[in-house]
Amino acid sequence: MPLISEEPQIPESAQGPRVTSAAGRTAPTPRPVPGPRSAATPRPGRPGPARPVPPAQRVHPAPAAPAAPVPPRPQPTENRSAPQLQLIPAPAGGALDAADEAVDLLLDSGRAPGDILVLTTGEPHPWTAHELSFGEAAYWAQHEAADDVFFAQASAVDRAASRPVVVVAVNGGADEAVARALPVARRRASTLLIVCGDPQTINSALGAGV
């Protein structure tokens, strides 16, 4: 039987140290060394709260000084004894027409009919004569209603109540009657007194200061 020469196998453990070139050696990756963790760094895998921001310093405003009280404004007082006076020159024969025209202008300007009282020193206004034909009670009831222009004779001015506007037609009558009626008519007018007639007669009745 032929002999087969076999090369003896040397076990690896029996081999000497293996020399590996430096170029082919793979150096192991060094493990990182954990350093100190700051308080702001959250723990890995668990989000931690953000670093609290110190609250801003509050500035306390100085207390405001109390406001000085404002004194109430005085309210103007209306002098009802001195209404505005308007004189419309007209002869005695045209004073009644001038008074009617003044009433129309007042109504056109927005004045309420119940605000106007018309007085005549001479012949009564045609409206007065017509309404008195139904009796004095019905006539004066319209005056008390105060919802329309009211016409009366100056001799009855004491019975008439005050209205914002009084129109006087000096269409005749005695000077003494006119002198007595005009001052009373001025007291009956709370806002405006309109006198239609002769300026000299009116001025002498009301006074030189008119």
Structural class: alpha/beta
Counting DSSP H or I runs of 4 or more residues, the number of helices is 5
Provide the residue-averaged pLDDT.
75
**Main sheet: strand order:** 1-5-4-2-3
Q: Give a count of the beta strands, DSSP E runs of length 2 or more.
A: 5
Strand % is 5-15%
Strand/helix succession: EHEHHEEHEH
Distance between the termini: 175 Å
Q: What proportion of the residues is helical, as a percent range?
A: 25-40%
| Low-pLDDT windows of residues | 13-17, 19-24, 29-58, 70-80
Q: Assign an overall shape.
A: globular
How does this structure look, described?
With 210 residues, the chain is of the alpha/beta class. 25% of the residues lie in helices and 15% in strands. It is built from five helices and five strands; from the N terminus they run βαβααββαβα. It has helices at 95-108, 126-132, 136-145, 175-188, 199-206, and strands at residues 84-89, 116-120, 150-153, 163-169, 189-197. It has a five-stranded parallel beta sheet. Helix 4 (175-188) links the parallel strand 4 and strand 5. Helix 4 (175-188) crosses helix 5.
